[in-house]
Amino acid sequence: MTRPQTTDPGAPIPGRLREVSEAFFVVTSLSRRSGGLTRAILQRVRLLDAQGIRTTVLVLKHAHAEDVERVALRLRRTLPRRTKVRYFWREGAALFPGDLGRVDPAGVTRRTVRNRLRRVQRVESLDTAGRVVAVEHRSLRGTRVAVDRTDAADGGAVRHHVSGARTWMSVREHLHPLRARAVVAESVGPRETTLAAAQGRWVAEVLGRAERVPVLFVDGTDACLLPTTLPAGVARVVSTLHNPHTVRPWTPRDPSEPHWDAVLRRTGAITRVVVLTRAQQADVLARYGEPAPTVVNNCVVGAVRPIVSTEPRLAVVGRLTRQKRVDHAIRAFATVAAQVPAARLDVVGEGSRRDALVRLAAELGVAGQVVFHGFRPDAHEILGRARAGVLSSWHEGMPLVLLEAMQAGTPYVAYDVAYGPGEIIRHGVDGLLVPPGDVDALGRAMLSVLRDAGLAARLGAAAQEVGERFSPERYAQEWLGVYREEVAEALLEGGAPEARRTGGRS
Description:
alpha/beta, Rossmann fold, Histone H3 K4-specific methyltransferase SET7/9 N-terminal domain, 3 domains, 8-stranded antiparallel sheet, 7-stranded parallel sheet, 32% helix, disordered N terminus, disordered C terminus
């Protein structure tokens, strides 16, 4: 099973639209270890780049080795050679020319953390008890770019963005982008705002200088409020939901999340909303009325080599976070292992819940049968050798890992959560769906594919049809259709000033 890297370009974009438009994509970070969200965004970048459309990726967060990651992604052809990449933390300082004051690390001792090349990645300050009270972040070149400190007043975490000796932005709760508050250094003095608004100001500046009609794509939760802060008309803005729009437990009956409510009401500059499944489209339409969101399913691209599995193995691939609810997969597997002692569960991925999950496997007596692989670039190979994949998330969008595994002949046992699994898996035909949160039912489904090799083989053979049902040709046609319509609307509204009709790729 090989991981695909390209997308069929589909029907061409008319030459005139290529000449007068360009596409911008907001991502939180850019890394070879990025999850399905960033992979889906880069798939769309490659699609438009293949059409000759100018593309730019706008990165919101700093990462120590981001220059190395960018080069590596280009070498893998995951990120097109012609696509420009711009970083908020590098350019934001110019927008906020004031100074919030120098931030010096606290603590009594300092500890230097280096990367594999022995370059300084961060410097930690420790108090007398050995606790980290401040972290100074460095770029790959050794430049100080941010300092994390604990607020003495309320104990909250604050990240101070610095440029030289100047502090140009301080962000409270920077790890929670949706509620993060910021203080920016305007030339006339400090000003309180939100992180989304500060980032939005940078994006608006970038779009305002575009030489062609800009179409901005904003995907996922972390950046979803950014386009609501943009002035109407600055660009055609396409906001894509990759998860449910409702609050926990994320069923269609639950109230809308406040941030998704703002998006679905098309606040700010948003001109179109895209969802990944027909089910979510129907739920949003019933709640908000017309215009209905556009549906564009994810797809799998590239040829794969099916692997015939003879071992009683199951696999979980994904981030080890609360949303993925991997503890349910381990609890269900524990009931299976008691009846199939040779069974194994491969867990591939990293995340904040790893240590807790390792302890859980030990407590349930299956530590020797649950293998934690961490991040693996060959995760698709491990999944391909499993009798079935297991998905026990609280919610999903339209999981790429599920599509890729099924195209390679690995069926899935999954909770029928909102929204993706039920649109991809045909229960009893190419996989098994069980009620969300029902660990016993999940265990019974796991047991059925382990005990009945014939059932697993039949499900796996039918699962390969996912490549036709969610083909790259249809994916390309639908996304290119979205782009064509957005540019055409901008032209009808007079959104292509003469200054944007000229100029080449910079």
